[in-house]
């Protein structure tokens, strides 16, 4: 059976117009290049599994080419998994990767500015290097994740955090990434922290955040 790939929904009006073009250009090289700076992706999966050993329903926000979807499907063989992304090109790659997992994996092309399935809820929501690119929109995404979680569910996040290097901040801004530590305070306000750790990359050129929060 093939994973379901639902038709495109309109992007949120406030989404920066260049972001879809950016990922259209990068989709083909994404997996070959991101290993060198998207640190902590395996670590956040380990921490998510420690917090939620057997989630029935999992949502990944900004699932991209499906790297984490495959890891989640293998780690949680009984879970129903949904991946959300704005880029059709990235989702096309994710679809090929997740085909072996059949109907356990659903892919949605849409902006994450509202819950996917708040009525049913998820035990685990994963955000991996996504929310720092939601500018504007990260507040709405965090609130959507809170509403998508069942009580006692967990949001697991790994993302860029901050840098003291102005040149690097400017360069990341060209790549649609905000690096001023803006995510951490809102995450702390929204959920109860289980993991809240800032890690250094390349000797402190930048920092990335590992965060797991529990919904009361």
From TrEMBL:
Query: Is Nucleus included in the keywords of this UniProt record?
Result: no
Could you mention a single GO BP entry for this protein?
methylation
Family matches, as InterPro entries: Methyltransf_25, SAM-dependent_MTases_sf
Cite the Methyltransferase domain residue spans from the record: 58-153
Kindly provide the name given to this protein in its UniProt entry. Ubiquinone/menaquinone biosynthesis methyltransferase
Keywords noted in UniProt: Methyltransferase, S-adenosyl-L-methionine, Transferase, Ubiquinone
Q: Which CDD domains match?
A: AdoMet_MTases (cd02440)
Instruction: State any single GO MF term.
Output: methyltransferase activity
The signal peptide here is: none
**What organism is listed for this UniProt entry?**
Lacunisphaera limnophila
């Amino acid at each position: 059976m093939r994973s379901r790939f639902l038709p495109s929904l309109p992007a949120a009006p406030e989404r920066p117009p260049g972001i879809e073009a950016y990922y259209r250009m990068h989709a083909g090289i994404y997996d070959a290049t991101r290993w060198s700076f998207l640190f902590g992706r395996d670590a956040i999966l380990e921490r998510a599994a420690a917090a939620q050993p057997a989630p029935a329903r999992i949502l990944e926000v900004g699932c991209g080419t499906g790297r984490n979807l495959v890891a989640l499907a293998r780690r949680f063989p009984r879970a129903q998994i949904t991946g959300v992304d704005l880029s059709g090109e990235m989702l096309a790659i994710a679809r090929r990767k997740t085909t072996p997992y059949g109907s356990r994996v659903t892919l949605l092309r849409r902006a994450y500015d509202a819950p996917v399935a708040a009525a049913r809820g998820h035990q685990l929501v994963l955000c991996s290097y996504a929310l720092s690119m939601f500018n504007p929109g990260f507040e709405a995404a965090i609130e959507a994740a809170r509403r998508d979680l069942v009580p006692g569910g967990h949001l697991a996040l790994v993302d860029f955090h901050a840098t003291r290097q102005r040149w690097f901040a400017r360069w990341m801004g060209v790549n649609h990434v905000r690096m001023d530590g803006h995510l951490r305070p809102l995450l702390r306000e929204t959920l109860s922290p289980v993991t809240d750790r800032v890690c250094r990359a390349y000797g402190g050129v930048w920092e990335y955040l590992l965060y797991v929060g529990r919904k009361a």
